Amino acid sequence: MKVVLTEDVKKLGSKGDVVEAADGYARNYLMPRGLAVEATQQKIKELKEKEAKKNRLESEKRDDAKKLKSKLESEKFVIKVKAGENGRLFGSVNTKDIAEAAADKGYDIDKRKLELDDSIKSLGMHTVAVKLYDDITANLKINVKEK
């Protein structure tokens, strides 16, 4: 029996695949659990339309991320903090501070997407990576200045 998988099924296929399954397996296991539906022309057509829409949306998100990357990399973000002798900070600059500095310039960046190994503890220019999309990462230029 030909079925369209609505979820990934081990050893059978992934979501959206049209596969041949044993009649009993399809009727007694896959369909009752919502893992598959019978492969009719209408279902196959709906699935292709849904897949095309999903690909189009993903393409738009990727393009938006690329535009945001170019904007972010052309900006310099300034964070003013209290500092002591030799440029050592009282405290440190963390992802929350960087996200707030970006928000001040109108960028909505989630602090969890900032890739900062350790907090910034000195004055000067620093580079911080922010993951915008699956494989698109922008490098922010952070200038830490004394108040």
Automatic annotation (TrEMBL):
Gene3D superfamilies found in the cross-reference section: Ribosomal protein L9, C-terminal domain, Ribosomal protein L9, N-terminal domain
Entry coiled-coil feature ranges: 37-75
Alphabetized InterPro entries for the sequence: Ribosomal_bL9, Ribosomal_bL9/RNase_H1_N, Ribosomal_bL9_bac/chp, Ribosomal_bL9_C, Ribosomal_bL9_C_sf, Ribosomal_bL9_N, Ribosomal_bL9_N_sf
Database matches in PROSITE patterns: RIBOSOMAL_L9 (PS00651)
BP terms from Gene Ontology: translation
GO molecular function, one term: rRNA binding
Assigned GO CC terms: ribonucleoprotein complex; ribosome
Pfam family, one: Ribosomal_L9_N
Keywords: Coiled coil, Ribonucleoprotein, Ribosomal protein, RNA-binding, rRNA-binding
Ribosomal protein L9 domain segment(s): 13-40
Domain of life: Bacteria
Family statement: Belongs to the bacterial ribosomal protein bL9 family.
Function: Binds to the 23S rRNA.
Protein name as it appears in the record: Large ribosomal subunit protein bL9
